[in-house]
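Incident log, support desk, overnight shift.

02:14 A customer reports that sequence design results differ from what the structure should imply. Their input is reproduced verbatim below. On-call engineer (initials T.W.) acknowledged and began investigating.
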């Protein structure tokens, strides 16, 4: 999170006495630390309770206990028994998983609670639950048994085929203890009793090991009084315990190497150096800024080198990772099979040159400019940063002892220190973490390579002549023609305008005030692609998707990144039903260069051998995921049966392998050069500036010839099979997946739309309550509307489950029964009122989102009608009754769902 980095400051621990001017922090008498941040204009408030305990406090007999305890806080507490936390927070508008969640790490467990309002009753409810987390969890045997299944399901869903390689690599370069993930081990999770969880909680959950953070609509004095009232009598028993420190890894006496059997995609190799570390070094006020600048320069040099080397996908600097007296810094390479030694040699060469010569002054200046630009961006976006984001930045910053600063403070720090960041100082900083005299540890994911060969190659590289510097990046041409002119202006209502340029380009503009300094742009161009053959459609879809990463104007992506310096030019592209679409968030002050870079990609795109190299990796990843991941297998099986003509676009690996650079260019050319073109600019940007910037870019291009297109045929469920679609996967033998869909044509009347949206939320809550809370079969069932929620379009209520294989049929039957129950009985009035608030809140958030407004404006020419439709939907939600929702359930959920199942193959062990 960029904002997190800026708020945590750029000057390191020496500036810890400086903090955000609005922040109020301290400790209660019982040792509970607090940090309170009022946010002007906020309506919401967010809380974080950080307990300084994690997997570091465990041993071999209780791996996973800290994470298990975290789960129990959402199942049953003193004030909220038997699933009460989710129900109570849901009634307050905090959705489980999104607004109400927790995370266990190595050193801390953090509970998140984001409330939509700061009403007294709602805040009191939140504080009551957080206090229960501290000393009011109920560890009842039946509830522990049910939650055990959820914890095991989370662990099962997180397993990957490359986990063993990760563990070997980590133990070799760092310490074996670094592999102790919070999710734990299956054997200990199955053995942990309610008494074990209770004892761990009683020992570690105490005020003098905890921190509470609140950010948003609050008065610090009043909030502090409430914290005193709620938490003041919380006390820990006995002496304050301490987690053991992580011992420092022993440095090798000579270069050593480990060959890891191939199992990851892409393959990964590392070269690391273990060097002395003095914690007092962080007291240097330049430490953090130097680290950021140095890492930026190193990574950019490594990235440019990798971009010129087929089969080497990325090179990056990782670290340092700090221990008590040592630090470990790594060169990390991701690469094609067989390229590990070459990737490390290439990275070694780049680092040796930089260590010998130091960075150039222009590189330092550019890196500092990027730091300034990041801080300026954070200042610009401050008005739209949510209390939840601020609470995260504040909580995690305090845990790691970092100052929490206002972006203006960060900018002042950078200005004060920038003059002291010089090439020679950075060269010495690199020498401290990557000295030539420190023997490297090498790990290569490779088949058929000997460790001795790797060591010999590394030693030879250390003695080789320094490599020639990479050529300077070529200048970019942003000349697109003579500035265009507007020939017609039309008001669309509610402040939106449509302007037509002489070259046929249409600009739609809407000035907004809810996010000062920010803007969003969307572009649509080309004919509708419905007439394309499946092969042509596949090539066009893929070519569009990779457009932002394929480079432009003859330069690869890494060179563009280097040349464009501090400008943020990220964008997304894709082929949609109306043509090629591009979208980007931007700052109002950067729309000009942002739009120019996007125009460059749309007029002079690259599709080169480097692009094909990346597509080969995508094909391998698709093939593996279809074979080993039951959720992917079941999704592919369902799409194949329902829409066979479209299936090869998203999921067939051979589609990617057949492509050539010429094919990619040809597939996208009709959309780039012909058919209508439309640009939407929404945000804190006036009309005159929007016209000027458009005139210099897309408005300056030649008129586009007409192009015949055809719409896609409507996506229907006409091919829905009467019997379940069943497939097998070769992943772990205990994993399975099910996909259920109840299709229906999305309704026209706002009242029926409101009922459909409420029903989707109701089904989600029912499925989560049954499969997670009551049965413990799944960790995170996915439930919602799929398809385009637009009148006349076929959509579906969809459920995806990932239970154990032995529970698959029972889980499917249970979900189907929940659907029938919703069709048979109306929801409670209180539940409907809660869902109504959630939906109205979601609509309000869309109206405050430049991206959502731009998406709507792109699709509509009558903005006033859109606003009227939105008002009608809001009114329909206000009038919605339980009977309306039940009627929707009867129409949608009474019949059997379309069903697809993925079961494990006979062998329980996955192939790599």
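02:41 Re-run completed on a clean worker. Output:
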């Amino acid at each position: 999170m960029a904002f997190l980095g800026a708020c945590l400051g750029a000057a390191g621990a020496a500036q810890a006495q400086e903090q955000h001017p609005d922040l109020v922090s301290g400790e209660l008498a019982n040792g509970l630390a607090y940090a309170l941040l009022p946010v002007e204009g906020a309506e919401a408030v967010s809380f974080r309770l950080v307990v300084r305990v994690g997997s570091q406090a465990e041993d071999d007999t209780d791996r996973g206990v800290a994470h298990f305890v975290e789960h129990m806080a959402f199942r049953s507490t003193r004030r909220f028994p038997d699933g009460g936390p989710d129900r109570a927070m849901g009634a307050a508008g905090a959705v489980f998983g999104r607004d109400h969640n927790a995370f266990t790490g190595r050193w801390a467990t953090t509970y998140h609670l984001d409330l939509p309002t700061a009403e007294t009753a709602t805040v009191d409810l939140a504080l009551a639950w957080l206090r229960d987390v501290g000393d009011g969890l109920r560890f009842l045997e039946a509830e522990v048994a049910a939650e055990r299944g959820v914890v095991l399901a989370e662990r099962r869903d997180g397993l990957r085929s490359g986990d063993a390689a990760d563990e070997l690599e980590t133990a070799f370069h760092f310490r074996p203890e670094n592999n102790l993930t919070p999710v734990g081990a299956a054997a200990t999770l199955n053995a942990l009793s309610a008494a074990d969880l209770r004892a761990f909680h009683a020992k570690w959950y105490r005020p003098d090991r905890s921190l509470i953070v609140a950010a948003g609509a609050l008065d610090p004095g009043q909030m502090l009084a409430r914290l005193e009232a709620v938490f003041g009598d919380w006390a820990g028993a006995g002496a304050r315990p301490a987690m053991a420190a992580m011992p420092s890894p022993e440095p090798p006496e000579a270069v050593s190497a480990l060959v890891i059997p191939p199992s990851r995609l892409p393959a990964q190799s590392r070269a690391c150096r273990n060097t002395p570390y003095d914690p007092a070094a962080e007291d240097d006020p330049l430490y953090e800024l130097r680290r950021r600048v140095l890492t930026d320069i190193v990574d950019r040099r490594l990235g440019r080198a990798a971009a010129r080397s087929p089969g080497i996908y990325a090179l990056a600097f990782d670290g340092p990772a700090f221990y008590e007296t040592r630090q470990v810094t790594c060169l990390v390479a991701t690469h094609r099979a067989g390229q590990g030694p070459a990737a490390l040699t290439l990275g070694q060469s780049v680092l040796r040159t930089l260590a010998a010569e130091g960075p150039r002054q222009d590189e330092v200046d550019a890196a500092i400019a990027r730091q300034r630009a990041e801080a300026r961006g954070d200042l610009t976006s401050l008005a739209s940063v949510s209390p939840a984001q601020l609470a995260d930045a504040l909580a995690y910053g305090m845990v790691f002892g970092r100052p929490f600063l206002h972006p203006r403070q960060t900018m002042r720090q950078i200005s004060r220190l920038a003059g002291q960041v010089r090439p020679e100082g950075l060269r010495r900083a690199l020498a401290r973490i990557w000295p030539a005299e420190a023997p490297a540890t090498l790990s290569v994911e490779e088949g058929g390579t000997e460790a001795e060969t790797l060591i010999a190659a590394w030693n030879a590289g250390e003695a080789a002549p320094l490599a020639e510097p990479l050529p300077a990046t070529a200048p970019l041409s942003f000349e697109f023609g003579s500035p265009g002119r507007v020939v017609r202006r039309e008001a669309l209502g509610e402040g939106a305008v449509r302007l037509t340029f002489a070259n046929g380009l249409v600009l739609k503009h809407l000035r907004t005030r809810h996010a000062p300094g920010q803007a969003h742009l969307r572009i649509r161009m080309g004919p509708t692609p419905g007439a394309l053959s499946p092969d042509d459609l596949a090539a066009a879809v893929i070519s569009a998707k990779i457009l932002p990463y394929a480079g432009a104007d003859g330069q690869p992506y890494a060179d563009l990144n280097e040349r464009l310096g501090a400008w943020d030019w990220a964008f997304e592209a894709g082929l949609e039903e109306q043509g090629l679409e591009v979208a980007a968030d931007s700052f109002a002050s950067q729309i000009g260069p942002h739009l120019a870079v996007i125009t460059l990609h749309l007029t002079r795109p690259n599709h080169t051998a480097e692009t094909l190299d990346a597509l080969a990796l995508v094909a391998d990843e698709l093939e593996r995921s279809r074979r080993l991941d039951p959720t992917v297998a079941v999704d592919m099986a369902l799409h194949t049966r329902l829409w066979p003509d479209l299936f090869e676009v998203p999921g067939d690996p051979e589609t990617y392998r057949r492509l050539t650079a010429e094919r990619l260019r040809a597939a996208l050319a009709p959309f780039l050069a012909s058919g209508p073109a439309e640009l939407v600019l929404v945000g804190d940007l006036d009309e005159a500036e929007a016209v000027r910037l458009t005139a210099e870019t897309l408005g300056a291009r030649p008129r586009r010839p007409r192009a015949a297109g055809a719409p896609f045929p409507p996506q229907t469920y006409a091919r829905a099979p009467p019997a379940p679609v069943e497939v097998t996967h070769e992943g772990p033998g205990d994993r399975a997946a099910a996909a259920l869909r109840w299709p229906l044509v999305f309704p026209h009347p706002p009242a029926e739309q409101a009922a459909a949206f409420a029903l989707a939320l109701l089904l989600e809550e029912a499925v989560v309550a049954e499969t997670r809370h009551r049965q413990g079969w799944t960790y995170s069932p996915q439930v919602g509307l799929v398809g385009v929620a637009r009148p006349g379009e076929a959509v579906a209520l969809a459920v995806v489950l990932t239970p154990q294989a032995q529970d698959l049929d029972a889980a499917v039957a249970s979900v189907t029964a929940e659907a029938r129950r919703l069709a048979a009985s109306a929801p409670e009035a209180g539940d409907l009122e809660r869902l109504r608030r959630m939906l109205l809140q979601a609509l309000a958030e869309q109206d405050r989102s430049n991206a959502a407004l731009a998406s709507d404006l792109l699709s509509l020419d009558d903005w006033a009608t859109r606003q009227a439709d939105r008002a009608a939907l809001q009114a329909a939600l206000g009038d919605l009754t339980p009977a309306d929702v039940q009627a929707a359930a009867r129409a949608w959920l009474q019949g059997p769902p379309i069903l697809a199942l993925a079961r494990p193959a006979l062998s329980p062990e996955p192939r790599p």
